[in-house]
Each structure stands twice: as structure tokens, then as C-alpha cells.
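Request:
You are asked to prepare a plain-text protein record giving the amino acid sequence and the C-alpha cells, at your earliest convenience.
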Amino acid sequence: MTESMAHPTTGRPEQRTARTAPDGAPGPDRHTGDAHTADGHEAAALLERTRAAVDPVLRTALGSLPAPMRRVALYHFGWQNEDGTPAGGGSGKALRPALVLAAASALLLALVAAEWRPLLDLDAGISRTTHRWAVAEDGLTQAARVLTDWVWDPWTMRLLCAVAVVMLLRRPGGRWTAGWLVVVVAVATAVQQGLKAALGRERPVWSDPVDSAHYAAFPSGHAMTATVVLGLLLWVLRRHGPGPDVWRTALTVAVVSVAGVGLTRVWLGVHWPTDVLGGWLLGALTVVAAVAAHRRLCPAAPDGSGGARPPSSSPEPPTSPEPPTSDDPPRRPR
């Protein structure tokens, strides 16, 4: 099939033949398709060559580590299973989510620190809209203040964590996990306050505020604390093998609380939306890193806490024979 088209330079009509598919419809340009296919093959080949060059060096570096550290590292890179057998996958068990969360947190932190104008405009637009709603809906605003000041307040979350610590201390072998909870929550609080002081981001300012807050804005302390505490407690609960109803209830409460506390902070006009997003991301990153540290450093398998653990850094101790079940006295060896 031919069609007349004007030349882009001379303006004169020229004849152009279009390729047609068997049914008469215009077909794709073979050369364009070949180019895209070639580009795809080249990209895949480049990635494969890069992996082939990096993997042996990385495996050699891991092989030089002491045996206990090597087993743990190979497990988290996805090259070794829990029982020490080679794994077929190429991605780590805890490395990928940690890297994704770290990259997202770093990107958002950089954009906030640089005061990237599109991000600031997005924050301002959402905040203006939600503030108008908060002023108009006094009942919802009062409910949000009760939830954010009492139910989901950071000190309420820390008190809940303290209750869990006391319960763990009363369980045999739970002292290490109790101390781990305390340390992680304390570190998360320090990181949160340090970022606030370093960035010094101002909170939204309104002529008719519905609530007030102090200190810098980024990241949201309410959002980050709720994410850290509830995420850690969910993981600890899961290791203790709760029933299906208990687990579903706990998971629902945690998800609603983490999402709800972030929404109330934006609704009340005391945080920009990206403050809350930053709190969620940093909190999730803290949970992932803390869980990986617990799996690597916990000195003994959790009693009654269930759950899989990475390969142990020391060989399994020999099991002692079971005591005789007979009431007869043991025979003296000759």
C-alpha cells in the first residue's frame, strides 16, 4: 500500500510504501523491532557480564571471613540455605528489603534537605486541602486529637513496648530479646531526634490552627515510633506462634494504628505528608535491620518463640542419649 506524504524539508509530496500485515493492517517496522530486541539483549548481556565479574570476587571475599560470619553472610546473600546447603536463588533473605527501604529513605531525605520544589508544592497542596477539611469537620478533628495525643502517642507506644519487655523478662530465655527491644526503640528515638535537629524543617503554619506541635517536622516522630514499636512487637508475637485469630487481630490493629497515626498528623496540620512518609520508611527500615540483627546475634534459639533462624554460627552440640525409661537401676560397666 502506498501513501502520499509531504517531505519535511522540501514540502513536495513523496510516495511511501507501508508494510502490511497478512490481514491488511499496517505492520510494525522490522528495523525498529530489531533495534529494540537488540537493545534488550545487550542490556541482559551486560547485566550477566557484570554479575559474572562481581559474584566471584564477592564470594571470595566472603570466603575469607571466619566460618561463623561466613555462614551468616552467605545465608543473607541467598547463596546458602539454613542447613548449609547451596541455595539456587541469587537474592538475600533480608538484604533486598533493607536496601529498598534504605534507598527510598535516602532519596526522600535528600529531596527534603534540598527543598525540591515539586515535592514542596505537593506537600503544600495536600496540606491546604486537609486543613480546610479539619476546620470544617470539628467532630473528626476532635477524634483525631484524642487518637494522636493519647492512643497513638509515642509515649503510649513506648509504654506498650515496656509491657512487652516485662512479659519477655518473665519468660525463660526472653532476656536477650527484651534487651534488644529496649535498645532498638532507644536507637530509633535517637535517630529520629537527630534527623529533626539536622534538617530543622519547619512545620506547617496556619492562621486558624486546629492543633499544635513542637520541634522540627521531618521525620514524623509519631509515625516512626508507631512503625518501629508495632513492627517489632508483631515480629516477636509471630515467633511465639499465636493462634490465627490472635494474629489477625494483632496485625489489623498494628496496620490501622500505623496508618491512622500518620493520617491524623496530616489532618491536624502539624506535619507535611512527606514527614509522615519519612517516618514510615525509616521505621520500616529500623524494623528490618533490627530483625536481621536479632537473627544474627541472638545467642540461642528462642524458646517457645518459633520461627526460622539463619544458620547457627557454631556447630550443633551432640545430643545426649535419652535416659532409660526402666525403673531398674543402671548396670555397672565391667
In short: The chain has two domains: 34-93, 95-297. The longest strand covers residues 2-6.
